[in-house]
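so i finally got all the pieces together for this one. its two components total, 589 residues if u count the protein bits. some of the lines might not be protein, just check the labels. i wanna see the whole assembly predicted at once instead of chain by chain like last time, that was a mess tbh
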Amino acid sequence: MPGNTAPRGATIEIAGLTKRFGHVTAVDDLTFSVHPGRVTGFLGPNGAGKTTTLRMLLGLVRPTSGRATFDGVRYRRLSRPLMTVGAALEASSFHPGRSARDHLRVYAQAGRVPASRVSAALATVGLAAHADRRVGGYSLGMRQRLGLAFALLGDPGVLVLDEPINGLDPEGIRWIRQFLRRLAAEGRTVLVSSHLLSEVQQSVDDVIVIAKGRLVYAGELAGLASARGRAGQASAPAVIVDSPTRDVLAHALADARLAFEQTGDGFLVSGADAASLGHLAFTSGIELSQLRPATQAGAIEDTFIELVGEGGL
Amino acid sequence: MGPFAAVRAEFTKIFTTHLWWVLALVLLVYLGALTGGLGTLFAGLQSGAIEARGGHVPSFGDLAPPLYSFATSIGYVFPVLFGALVTAGEWRHQTITPTFLANPHRFQVLWAKICSAVVFGAGYGVLALAASVTGGALALRHFGLDPELGEVSTWHLFVRALAAMALWGFVGVGLGVLVPSQAAVIVTILAFTQFVEPLLRLAAAFSVPTADAAKFLPGASSDALVGASFLDLQNSAEGTMVVAHLDWQHGGLMLIVYGAAVTVIGCLTTWRRDVS
């Protein structure tokens, strides 16, 4: 359990990071930084180069060029890496015959982490009761938690988690969101990758978005909505409106020369606000079943998909 | 981090899975049965208790050393498999990722694996000798032959057998680095040790030049280091075979060369590669 004296996180610096596999450029001249005290989402479609980037950051994959450092120090140069950076990369890096406790014991010894951290990490992720069972019998969710326990083993100031929400049940998802927020609040650096914005939208402060190995957005989550303008489309107020008589409403919207598209719950009308649409409906004698501004979340999601679009979502 | 921490972690890895004792158990049963059974046959023939074809009594010479050397000439496959599996198993179960995260100094990890495989190799040597000496000595004594357990030369053979088993652990780690696919390395080891090399040595024994070359084969080098071999029995019985031996120091050196060669080639190829 992270105590009162949680270690302060380092700043992750990625500079000109590139990885080519033969003729394929998996990661293309990436530059961004990740700051302590914040949860940063690392987003992009599957195959965008997220995992390769994280593995280069952790010294597992050799970059073709560029640098990835923690406060200026490469992973391989850290004196006790597990106590500086904790990483959870995939849910299957276990020997199935080993218990969770033994698994962590091995790496505590290898990384010179105090043995007492093994039980502490298991308790933090809620695996204490299953710690002496063979990992081969674990569910995917339990493996995810064990992966997280490995990341927390050295009580590190930096956490790098690759798709940590995959395979968790709803209660587990809620738990990990709160947990990530708490780690960041303690001053740690938290970098969480996901191919689904909606998975991390509720818990991240900043986002890094990549597509086809290139950076397409780096900044605050809220800024992603207005990035839409930069991405080539006007950012305009939008309203969701619906009626029991949809075809009549569609006519009225077309007559008023409003741009609209049909969605699951009515029409998404851009370039108009709720008041003007309410007026239009009233004067046209149309009954409305719904009238509300399109949410910020929706706009962020739209921008995200637009940014990574053609990326093979 | 740190060479001692790395070795300690390797021992914990080994003792928290079943491989080490399963191999030990199979080794004990296999070698005990084989030495006891074949010891009974050869000792029976030599003492005349079992009648050989044609009624003559064959002489195998000094029976005790080759029987005891079953520990290595048959048992060497166990430390090789062990060394290869503790290395290739890391890729098989993807534990290579946490291993390199906990200690990014890959050569230190490799060094720790070699150290632990050498120690376990020697440990398998103790068990293998216990099995072959028990089986062999019981068989010899049963037919009134001398088990030679009081002789200094017998104990020298034991010591050299332990050294050979330790070196085979090293060779195993090297093979596991060179061929990181667990299935492929098991098949390679079993095919080479159980079929390819024995057939090569048998074929080579029909002429002097081939026998001179075959003495450098890994199994032949190991037998040279130990100073006795199962094949000696066959050769002394047939009388038509040519057997060339390295002396024991050079046999040991050849094993080190084999281990170093596979380890270095593996280091330059798979051990440095991207873990993804």
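Chain A has a mean pLDDT of 88.
Residues 69 and 283 of chain A are 62 Å apart (CA to CA).
anyway lmk what u think
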